[in-house]
Amino acid sequence: MKTRVLVVDDHAHAREAICDIISMDEKFEIIGVVTNGREAIEFTEQWMPDLILMDIQMPDMDGLETTQRIKLRFPYVKIVMITVSDDMFHLLEALKRGAQGYLLKNLAPSTWIEYLRSIVSEEAPLSRELAFQILKDVSLTTKKETVETLTPREREILSNVASGLTNREIGGKLNISEHTVKNHLKNILHKLQVQNRVQLTRYALEQGIVTNQE
């Protein structure tokens, strides 16, 4: 199965160059290209990419803030920061915000592909667990009730799971792929700290997200 990639950069020539590199490897599939952080958040909520290539320097909402917001809501999405310099401050901040790593824009395409493959296979030097721990340690947001952390799409999927629909049936009903449904479910399980569909159904009933009459 291909790794579904979202490219986020406010410069057209940079977006084109990144897409050209990613297209060199059939393991990756570009499913979206956006120009700013807000678009990246909206796209991620709707389409759940596996990997996001995020430019650090962007107007309005920079890549660091965008990364933190996405990782808080979608912990399993992998994010690699794209930058023109290896400034230590940006590198540390990227890791603190939850990124799995970073790439310099002037590196050889073969280096990009090799590194991204290691990120996807979770063999990169920085582990996902470490990134999550850093993000948890530096987050200044207060912990909300778990149900409040679910996005509208996640609530919709949770309701359908509790109603007994399969992933394929949910995908057909919501007009999204089965793979996207699975990614959403991973995030829901992580956020609610439950392990399976039975526990999800119980949670949905307890919270009034779905009723026995549905």
Kindly summarize this structure in a few lines.
It comes from Paenibacillus anaericanus. The chain has helices at residues 12-22, 37-47, 63-73, 88-96, 109-120, 128-138, 152-162, 167-174, 178-192, 197-207; strands at 3-8, 28-34, 51-55, 78-83, 101-104.
Write out key terms for the chains shown.
single chain, alpha/beta, Rossmann fold, Arc Repressor Mutant, subunit A, 2 domains, 5-stranded parallel β-sheet
CATH architecture of the largest domain: 3-Layer(aba) Sandwich
Q: Gyration radius, to the nearest Å?
A: 18 Å
Integer average pLDDT: 84
- Give a count of the beta strands, DSSP E runs of length 2 or more: 5
InterPro entries: CheY-like_superfamily, NreC/VraR/RcsB-like_REC, Sig_transdc_resp-reg_receiver, Tscrpt_reg_LuxR_C, WalR-like
Domain Response regulatory: 4-120
Domain HTH luxR-type: 143-208
Protein name: Response regulator transcription factor
Task: Write structural notes for this entry.
The chain is an alpha/beta fold and 214 residues long. It folds into 2 domains: 3-138, Rossmann fold (3-Layer(aba) Sandwich); 146-207, Winged helix-like DNA-binding domain superfamily/Winged helix DNA-binding domain (Arc Repressor Mutant, subunit A). Helices cover 51% and strands 13% of the residues. The protein has helices at residues 12-22, 37-47, 63-73, 88-96, 109-120, 128-138, 152-162, 167-174, 178-192, 197-207; strands spanning 3-8, 28-34, 51-55, 78-83, 101-104. The chain has a 5-stranded parallel sheet, sandwiched between helices. It is elongated, with a radius of gyration of 18 Å. The model is unreliable at 125-144 (pLDDT under 50). The modification 4-aspartylphosphate is found at residue 55.
